[in-house]
Model the fold of this input.
Amino acid sequence: MFQKFIKVVGLSVILLLSQIAVNPASAEEVNNDQGLDLSKLQSGEEMEKDGFKIKYYSNEDAAKKIAKDNGVSEKSVLDKLDGNKTENLNKQTMSSAKVSATATKKCATGAVAFSRPLNVTSSYKPTLDIWTELCENSSGQYVIKSIVDISIDRSYKGVSKGFNGNVTAKALNSGKTLFYNANGDFYNNKSTTAGTQLGFNTASASLSFNVSQTSNFYAYLKQSDNIILFK
Done:
């Protein structure tokens, strides 16, 4: 009788442990279905999803990083970011009769960077930063309203390369999906400046990068990916 009791107790424990092991997977699926809640993201905080890091910056901190990575003036970047914020404030003062049913309710005051490593080689993986403006849609979800800038942090483990190419970023599916494509050549020099820019402060933007010399080739890169905020 005592042995039967032990067997019953042991079987109960095994069943309980198996249920505990299953629950975390179920919870993860629920979180994915709920989407990526960026409304709770505070300045300086970051989240991770699908290989992307998502971090919220004040306009001032964003301007410093973009200027450093792209070889442009901090003031020019800050003026662009502040100008975009002023435009949003003006739009929010419009009467409700002039705002469509899909218009945003409110927008983040800073810039949100979606960052992804660029797999140039196994030993060199710089970081692509896509800077976005997040706004609340009619469903209360914070989605990507526009691409405000693009930058590449070319420093990786103490090594920096020059990049001559183009990066395109698009907010798709009413801002619920972010897509990017990076295409170009890396060189064994550190001199890189941002070139022609198109479509910033819209849902589709691109930026070219230029190097001063193209005689010291390192590697070619073609990479694209996307992140889904909400299905």
Q: What stands out?
A: The CA atoms of residues 148 and 201 lie 5 Å apart.
